[in-house]
């Protein structure tokens, strides 16, 4: 059931005596895995508009529920590189234009085997030109009419161009495999670790253990997702014993409970990059000296400490710290006020007022903008913070203004480049357009030589670090809380395989 600030709306009223008994004292320690019990997980929700269609999943709660009930061919590991899931293995052709996928022996919840035809039908549904599914942009390189089911457990995908990073597409957000012909998701059938029991939109979803799961049955008997839109309500539900897991807690909450024994805090490093985006196609940040001045004005440790309450790491103006292909050899930028002042004068920007667009569309953005504006004082450049409409913020800042707050979750570095930094990228907020950079990307994704690919990605990052428009000052930890008796919680980055993954979790 849904939760709010004032109470828990009778969350426990319908629970059995056996379930409540598991909430008492004397439980086994969380370090000792044991089978059984119901875990109740509190997430922010979307009200009556929530869906169980995994191809429409957008909210974190929808993504977590989809993960519990469905599988993808691949998913992202802790370093945000693709790992096989329903795909037992993948093999590209020599020219990287055809990929053969061998499926695991897996079954849907109704007992039907997962077949190559289900994979092709799922991708055809996502790619339907008359529908809007989030994974569509990642799968558009598939030449579906020329793809085929070789047999029930073998799919051969034809691609429109050579693409060595095709496993990233298989792991795309929302690219779940559903039974051929599936359209009614009121009682969804997937191949995941948990199967459907009941759904009250905007309130709760109850799932049960799938004993036939291909990777091994979960320890939990039942998994219940409950809705609590306010972070304080999720925290209070955890403290009050109404739930055992609370998603997306604030750094302040984490800090206040870090040394206590009522909540166990779990941090997932490198889950969300925090940044400011400068547009290169217009004044004043079409001037490289001024962009460098902003890089040098940022006191990154202070931003991490004040905005993230220390729950994060300093960034170096590049996406994907710790991820596969990250250019960690590039030296860390430091604040240098004197050099920034020199560059501001050189750019003819002394006395200039620059508007920094921000909003409450993502946690911490307004606070970060305010801190950064204060850090710029005394430089000769004045940063004026403008708080915009949170509902239209991302669309507004994609087109308008010259400097804006930016935040992104985890994804492969290749995906970040493809979506945001190529001339034709749909979400190119910095307006970075370099034909030679596009050519480097094509070189990286069309070679099977791992060493060449890694070096090409690093060359691209060196160019971005020197001349780009993203001031990526920090990487935030994603924070969840559990009761101390819960074990098996992963610290993988948000949106990766082991984030919000409950088939490995137990209640002690």
From TrEMBL:
Keywords, in A-Z order: Signal
Occurrences of domain Solute-binding protein family (ranges): 82-411
Top-level taxon: Bacteria
InterPro entries given in the database record: Peptide/Ni-bd, SBP_5, SBP_5_dom, TAT_signal
PROSITE patterns, per database record: PROKAR_LIPOPROTEIN, TAT
Pfam families attached to this UniProt entry: SBP_bac_5 (PF00496)
Protein name per the record: ABC transporter substrate-binding protein
């Amino acid at each position: 059931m849904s939760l709010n600030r004032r109470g828990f709306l009778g969350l426990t009223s319908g629970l059995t005596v056996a379930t409540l008994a598991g909430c008492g004292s004397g439980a086994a320690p969380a370090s000792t895995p044991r089978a059984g019990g119901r875990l109740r997980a509190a997430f922010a929700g979307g009200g009556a508009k929530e869906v169980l269609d995994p191809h429409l999943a957008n909210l974190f709660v929808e993504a977590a529920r989809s993960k519990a009930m469905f599988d993808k061919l691949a998913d992202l590991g802790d370093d945000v590189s693709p790992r096989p899931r329903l795909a037992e293995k993948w093999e590209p052709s020599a020219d990287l234009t055809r990929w053969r996928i061998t499926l695991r022996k897996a079954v849907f919840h109704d007992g039907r085997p997962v077949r190559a035809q289900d994979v092709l039908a799922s991708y055809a549904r996502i790619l339907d030109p008359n529908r809007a599914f989030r994974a569509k942009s990642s799968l558009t390189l598939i030449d579906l009419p020329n793809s085929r089911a070789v047999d029930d457990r073998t799919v051969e995908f034809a691609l429109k161009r050579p693409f060595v990073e095709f496993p990233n597409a298989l792991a795309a957000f929302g690219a779940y495999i559903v039974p051929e012909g599936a359209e009614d998701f009121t009682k969804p059938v997937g191949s995941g670790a948990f199967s459907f029991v009941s759904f009250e939109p905007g309130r709760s979803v109850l799932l049960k253990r799938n004993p036939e799961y291909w990777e091994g049955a979960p320890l939990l008997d039942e998994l219940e997702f409950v809705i609590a839109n306010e972070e304080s309500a999720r925290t209070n539900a955890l403290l009050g014993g109404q739930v055992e897991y609370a998603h997306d807690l604030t750094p302040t909450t984490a800090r206040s409970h870090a040394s206590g024994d009522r909540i166990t805090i779990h941090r997932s490093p490198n889950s969300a990059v925090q940044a400011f985006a400068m547009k290169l196609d217009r004044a004043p940040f079409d001037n490289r000296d001024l962009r460098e001045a902003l890089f040098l004005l940022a006191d990154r440790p202070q931003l991490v400490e004040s905005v993230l309450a220390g729950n994060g790491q300093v960034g170096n103006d590049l996406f994907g710290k710790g991820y596969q292909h990250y250019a960690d050899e590039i030296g860390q930028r430091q604040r240098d006020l004197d050099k920034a002042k020199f560059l501001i004068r050189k750019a003819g920007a002394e006395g200039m007022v620059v508007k920094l667009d921000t909003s409450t569309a993502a946690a911490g953005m307004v606070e970060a903008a305010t801190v950064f504006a204060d850090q710029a004082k005394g430089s000769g450049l004045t940063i004026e913070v403008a708080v915009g409409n949170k509902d239209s913020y991302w669309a507004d800042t994609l087109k308008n203004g010259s400097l804006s707050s930016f935040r992104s979750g985890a994804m492969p570095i290749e995906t970040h480049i493809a979506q945001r930094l190529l001339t034709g990228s749909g979400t190119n907020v910095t307006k970075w357009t370099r034909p030679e950079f596009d050519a480097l990307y094509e070189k990286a994704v069309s070679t099977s030589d791992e060493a060449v690919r890694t070096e090409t990605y690093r060359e691209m990052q060196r160019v971005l670090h020197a001349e780009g428009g993203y001031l990526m000052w920090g990487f935030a930890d994603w924070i969840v809380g559990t009761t101390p008796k819960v074990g098996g919680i992963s610290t993988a980055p948000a949106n990766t395989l082991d984030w919000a993954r409950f088939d490995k979790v137990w209640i002690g």
